[in-house]
Amino acid sequence: MVQDPTFGPMVMFGLGSIYVGVLKDVKFAIAPVNEIEARDMITEIKTHELLEGTRGDKASDIGSIADIILRISQLVTDFPEINEFEINPLMVFEEGKGALAVDMRLMLKGD
Predict the structure, then answer these.
(1) Cα(51)–Cα(85) distance, integer angstroms
(2) Helix and strand tally (H, E) in the chain?
(3) Among 2, 77, 91, 99, which residue has the least CB neighbours within 10 Å?
(4) CA distance 1 to 107
(5) Are 73 and 38 spatial neighbours (Cβ–Cβ below 8 Å)?
(6) What is the pTM of this model?
(7) pLDDT score of 42
(8) How far apart are CA 42 and CA 59, in angstroms?
């Protein structure tokens, strides 16, 4: 998430790594987002099929990802002094088993 001078808090979702760095496969939304918008952010990236399970891999817990997007969206809406917020990496387990934020960075305005 970053604070845009025109739109306010902008939430970004992508799979990270080369998918973001090379393919620029990300989706943005203006916070706060609702559940439909959070799920759309996930399903509208080009690589979303990797989350749904491919070549015998189990599906990832997409509901957990959507919940995290919703919570971050609400957090940055409730606290406008947050200038940037990043979770990297977010380990997402198989469907129904949740996710784990391994590392996060939060920058306040003026930092």
Answers:
(1) 23
(2) 4, 7
(3) 91
(4) 10
(5) yes
(6) 0.91
(7) 96
(8) 13
Q: Please, is 21 exposed, middle or buried when counting C-beta atoms within 10 Å of its C-beta (0-12, 13-18, 19+)?
A: exposed
- In order of their start, the domains of the chain are 2-108 (3.30.470.20)
Provide the token pair at 38: 């959070």
What digits encode the pLDDT tens for the residues 17-72? 666 666 788 999 999 999 999 999 999 998 888 889 888 889 999 999 999 999 99
Q: Is 109 helix (H, G, I), strand (E, B) or coil?
A: coil
pLDDT tens-digit map of 91-110: 999 999 999 999 999 999 98
**Residues of 77-111 as b/e, b for ≥16 C-beta within 10 angstroms?**
beeeebbebebeebebeebeeebeeeeeeeeeeee
Residue 54 pLDDT: 84
Tokens 């509901």 locate to 63
